[in-house]
Amino acid sequence: MNVLREANYITVPWKNGGGLTREILKVPSDAPMFDWRLSLASIEIPGPFSTFDGYQRTLVLVRGAGVQLDFGANGQVSLRAPGQTAVFDGAWSTSCTLIDGPSTDLNLMVAKARAEADARVMALTTPELIRTTDWEETLVCCISGSVQTENTAGEIATLGAADIARCNPEDGVLTCGPLGVEPALAFIASVRHHKT
């Protein structure tokens, strides 16, 4: 289990030059055509998103009053509370309107031809079990509150908002719950390459 802290994320420009993203991880790390990438974007002005043909995108609101996403002929969706999620095709023409000031979101992108993901948001009030078997990586991201994650070996990670526990099958079954009495929200993403 490797813990990634928000303070250490690398800032990179959007592909279309319209903003900045803090890149959390990219696989492969040195390839321009990544298989999957997780990033944290601060959206401060309305405008278009970069297009990523061939990628499935999962967007999760982390901070702020939220965003309205317009996919043209593919509809619209509003994210107004932390943890609300939009899943869409990276090739879609997408524009973003801010609901009430800047917002911050997690963005998971997976190359559909090479990889797959199972992603969900969990409201943690008591410890929950998360299995890492059959997935190359399991990413536990704290969205709000504080999350404690423990692997089968007894290693414990405490996550604040936008911190990540990057886990693999050797971590076994993860026990994830809130730290303290206050509930927490966590984004769980399991990713792997297609089996050949």
Summarize the structure.
This protein has 196 residues and is mostly beta strands. The chain is 0% helix and 57% strand. The protein folds into two domains: 7-111, Jelly Rolls (Sandwich); 115-193, Sandwich (Jelly Rolls).
What does this structure look like?
The protein has 196 residues and is mainly β. It has 2 domains: 105 residues, Jelly Rolls (Sandwich); 79 residues, Sandwich (Jelly Rolls). It is 0% helix and 57% strand. Strands 2-3-4-11-6-9 form a 6-stranded antiparallel sheet, with no helix packed on it. The chain has a 5-stranded antiparallel sheet with strand order 1-17-14-19-12, with no helix packed on it. It has a 4-stranded antiparallel sheet with strand order 5-10-7-8, with no helix packed on it. Strand 15 and strand 16 form a beta hairpin. The chain is globular and about 45 Å long. The two termini are 27 Å apart. The mean pLDDT is 93.
Question: End-to-end distance, in Å?
Answer: 27 Å
Number of strands: 19
Query: In percent, how helical is the residue content?
Result: under 10%
Largest sheet: 6 strands, antiparallel
Strand order of the largest sheet: 2-3-4-11-6-9
C-alpha-based Rg, rounded: 16 Å
And the CATH topology of the largest domain?
A: Jelly Rolls
Helix vs. strand class: mainly beta
Which of globular, elongated, flat, extended, rod-shaped describes the shape? globular
CATH top-level class of the largest domain: Mainly Beta
- Number of discrete helical segments: 0
Beta fraction: over 45%
